[in-house]
Amino acid sequence: MPDSRRMNAFDRYNFLLPLIGYLMRNPETTLSAVASHFGVDEVFVREALTTLMSTATYKDFDRTYYMFDVEKLDDEGIISVWQGDVIEDAPRLSARQASALAAGLSIMSTLPEFSSEHEIAELLEILSEGTTESGPAAIHYRPGPIDSDVAVIRKAMLNNHRIECVYRNIRGETSTRQIDPLRLDTRGNIWFLRGYCLIHKELRNFRLDHMGSAVELEVEICDEAKKIQDIDDAEYQSSETDITVTVEVDPEAYSMLGDFSAQIIKEDRKSNVITASIKIGYLPYLGKVIAHYGGAARVLEPASARQVVRNYALTALGLEPEGLPEQD
Amino acid sequence: MTDSQDYEIDASDPSERLLNLTLALISTSVGMTKAELFSAIRDYRNDLENGISVDSLNRKFERDKEALLKSGVQLKTRILDSDMDDNQETRYIIDPSGFQWPPKVKLSAKQLQLLQLASSVWRQASLSSDAARGLDRLRALGTSTPSSDIIAFAPRIKTQSRAFAPLTTAVTEHRQVTFSYRRPDQDEAETRTLQPWRISHIEDQWLVQGFDVARGEARNFLLKRIVSEVKVSKDIVFDSPTQKQIDEHQDELDAHIANNIAILNVKKGSSAWFHYDMSAIDETDVQQLKIQYMDLALLADDLRDYAGDFEVIEPKQLDEAVRQGYEKVAVAHA
C-alpha cells in the first residue's frame, strides 16, 4: 500500500488524475470502496478529495471544478459527486507505462493457463489503444522456453494436488521428492517452485531447472501446506551457517549482485568495478557461480573460497585440483 | 469521521498546481499564453504577488511542463507568427480527446487482476513506478474491484543493468545516446553512438536495438556489456522508427539465432541434463543436445556452470570460449 506521506508531488498528481476518472464513472461511492479499489488508505483518498475541491483557475472569477457532498463525506464516508468538470475520464497511458505493463503481460503469457487464451492479447490491444503516443512499443519481452514441468505443476496447483518429481539439489544429489506446490516464481528465465516439502516439513524453494519428470498425484495438499498464507519472494534466505565471501565484479557480472542480494562495499568510478560481499550456504557451489562469468567476477577472500573457485576451474580444464589452504 | 480540517492542503501543494495547470489547458479552446497561465493559476499568481523573479517563475513553469510530459500528458504548443523569440505569444493547450480514455473502455475485475500481476513483475526493478502509475489509470476503468486472491504466480523482471533506466528514457523520448561497449573478444571498450529504438528481452538477455550512427546500420547491444554510464543527449532527437524497420531488424537477429547451432554431448542425469530439460529417451549414458544461440560468449558462460557434465562437439569456437573462461578464472584465483 503506497504511503501517502512518502509520495512526492509528481506521484500525487499521477494519482489524482485517475481518481477523477474513477469518480466521474462512479459518482456515488464510498471512501472505503475507493481506497480498496486503488489499494491506498482512506486518509489518503480523503486528502486527495480535499485537493480536488480546492482546484480552481482564475479568469475574471474563480472557476472551481470538483465538488462533493462534504457532510455525507465526513459523517458517513460517502462520496457523492455534486460537480465534475473538464476531465471526464482517466488519462491515457504514457509510452513508458504502457510498455511496462505490456512487458508484464508478455511474461504472464508463459503460464500454461494463459498461453492459449485471448485475455492477454485483448489487454495488449487495449494498452496500445490507450497510449498517448502511437508508435512501436519501447520494451519488447520475449518469454523464454518453458520448462516441461511447469504445465504439470500449474495443473496440480489449480487442483490443489501434490506432485512427485526427481530433484537434483545444490550438492548434486538426486532424489525423488513429493512437494505440495504453492507458488511459481520466475526470475528472468529461471523458474522457481515455492512449495511445502514433505521430507523437510517446511516451505522450500525448488529450481525447476533442477527438476525433472514431475507428475501430479491424486492426493490433496496437506493441511500444513494449506495453512501457509504469506509466501515471501523466493529470494535467497541466508542462514547462520552461511559463509561471507568478498567479490569484485565487472559490469558484465553485475547480475550476480542481484542474485545474491549483495552488500556493496565500494565502487571504482573509473573502472566501474564493484566490490561487494555475498553470503553463500554451500561453498563448493561458488565454483560454478564465479566460473560462469569467465573472469568478470573474482573472489577476494576468504582464501578457502578462492581455492574452491580455482579448483573448480582447474578440474574443468582437466588439471589436478590443489589442496585447500590452511583455514584462516 | 475525522475532522476534515486535518486534511487542509497547503495552497502551494505542487500536485494541486499541476492539476490546475492541466485543467486550465484542457478547458481552453484556443490555448493559453504563459502570462495568462501565470494569472489563472493560484500558485503562480501568488508567486508573482510575492515578488518572485520572472526567471524563477519561468523555471518553475518549465519544470511543471516537464512533469506533465513525463506523465504522458500531450501538452501542445502553438507558436504564433507574431511571436518573436521570447515565447510570450506561444500558446499551450491539451487536446481533451487525446488526454483521456474513450468512455467505452471498461475493464472487468479479472482483467484488472491480470494487469495488477503484470505490474508486479517490475517490483524493485527499473519501471516499477511507471507500471504502478499505469495500473492506477487502468483501475479507474475497472467496473469492480478485483478480489485479492492471487494466481499463485509471482514473476519478476530482472534488470540489474544500470543502463536500463536511461535507455528507457532515451527510447521513449527518441533521444540519441552514447556509451562504452566492451565486446568479449576485445579488452578495451569502444564508444558507441546509438539512436535507440527499443529495449528487448531475448534469450534471457536485455538488449538495446537501434541505429548505430557511426556504422550506419541497425545493431544490437547487450546491456550487460555496456560498461559506462549511458549519456542521453539533450538536443539530438530522432524520428520514431517504423514498426517495419524494427521487425526487419528483429527478423535478421532471429535468422542469426536460427543459424547458430551448437551440438553437445550431455551426461544423463547430470545438472546440465536437468538444466536443459532433457528427458530419457534411450538407455545410453550420454545424450546429444542441439541448441540455438544468440551469442557464443553468452552460451559459453552458461555452459561453464556445468563443468564435467558435457562435451562440446561443435562449433570449436564454443569449446575454446568455455576453456578460455576457465583459464581466466583459474589465473584470477591463483
From TrEMBL, chain A:
Residues 242-315 form the WCX domain. InterPro entries: CBASS_pafABC_assoc_protein (IPR051534), PafC-like (IPR028349), PafC_HTH (IPR043839), WCX_dom (IPR057727), WYL_dom (IPR026881). Residues 151-214 form the WYL domain. Residues 14-128 form the PafC HTH domain. This is Unannotated protein.
UniProtKB/TrEMBL annotation, chain B:
It comes from freshwater metagenome. Residues 163-228 form the WYL domain. PANTHER family: PROTEIN PAFB, PTHR34580. This is Unannotated protein. InterPro entries: CBASS_pafABC_assoc_protein, WYL_dom. PROSITE patterns: WYL.
